[in-house]
Design goal:
CATH superfamily of the largest domain: Regulatory protein AraC
Number of helices: 11
Largest sheet: 7 strands, antiparallel
Helix content: 40-55%
Strand content: 15-25%
Shape: globular
CATH class of the largest domain: Mainly Beta
Order of helices and strands: EEEEEEHHEHHHHHHHHH
Distance between the termini: 47 Å
């Protein structure tokens, strides 16, 4: 005899494409994780933009009031869950620094899965996706268990990325500065000084970690903010360019086209925005 599903499941999971300017909607008290299965995307909140690529997992706290998703050919998986019901208050995983880093009420947190660890996490996610639509007996219990395993794997990954890879640590001060001041003029020597390394070495470290140059990363942050403003406001493009760090609106349009494939005006007028 089939089991009766709970009226309020502990966790839910869905896979989808990306509608232009799609809002991220969760029930009160729910955490969400945006997993990027393919393509690239951005998650824009009222305070910050988060460029996302394949293998990224973005943790969204319940306290976040609003967020929008933008992307080109993005294939996403959204996981929604009640954390306290899934992982008890005395669970040992809560004592890990990685847990505190990912489940912070202060704002979204990002972890990237690649290599053997990424393969393990991808396997757990695929198993969870198999159980999500199932009406087999115990499907929800199996999904809950897989979600716990997935969360533990991501917490361990975050823990190792900060504790066991000191070579990545020098990037953290510069990365935080870039994400907070990307509308201002930022130089490579300035970023290198923040990370206590030479400009050449900083550039190599950054390219290896993010597959783009620091200049390209700053441009991605600026254009992500521009996309949100083009989609959700009627402000003139020259004003948007200036607010995103570009004094020359023509140069802004060239950078925008290079990253998005269309002009800012076309982006604003296109229902299916890339």
């Amino acid at each position: 005899m089939p089991c009766s599903p709970s009226s309020s499941p502990i966790c839910e999971i869905s896979i989808h494409g990306l509608a232009p300017g799609a809002p991220l909607v969760c029930r009160k008290g729910e955490w969400a994780i945006i997993a990027v299965l393919g393509g690239s995307a951005e998650c824009q909140t009222e305070e910050k933009e988060y460029p996302l690529r394949k293998g990224d997992f973005l943790f969204i706290p319940p306290e976040l009031r609003s967020a929008w998703l933008q992307g080109r050919n993005a294939r996403l998986c959204t996981l929604r869950f009640r954390l306290d019901a899934l992982i008890g208050p005395k669970a040992d995983i809560r004592q890990c620094a990685g847990f505190s880093a990912l489940f912070s009420p202060a704002g979204p947190a990002l972890v990237h899965a690649a290599g053997t660890e990424g393969a393990e996490i991808e396997y757990l996610l695929s198993k969870a996706l198999q159980e999500a639509p199932s009406d087999a007996p115990g499907a929800q219990s199996c999904l809950n268990a897989l979600m716990v395993c997935l969360l533990v794997a991501l917490v361990r990954l975050r823990q190792r990325s900060t504790a066991d890879r000191p070579d990545a640590d020098p990037l953290s001060p510069a990365l935080s500065y870039m994400e907070e001041h990307f509308t201002e003029e930022i130089t490579l020597p300035q970023l290198a000084a923040l990370s206590d390394t030479s400009p050449r070495h900083f550039d190599r470290l950054f390219r290896a970690a993010y597959q783009v140059t620091p200049k390209q990363y700053i441009a991605q942050l600026r254009i992500a903010r521009a996309c949100a403003m083009l989609a959700h406001t009627n402000r003139p493009i020259t004003e948007i360019a200036f607010d995103c760090g570009y004094a020359d609106s023509n140069y802004f349009s060239r950078v925008f086209r290079k990253i998005r494939g269309i002009s800012p005006q076309q982006y604003r007028q296109t229902p299916e925005r890339p």
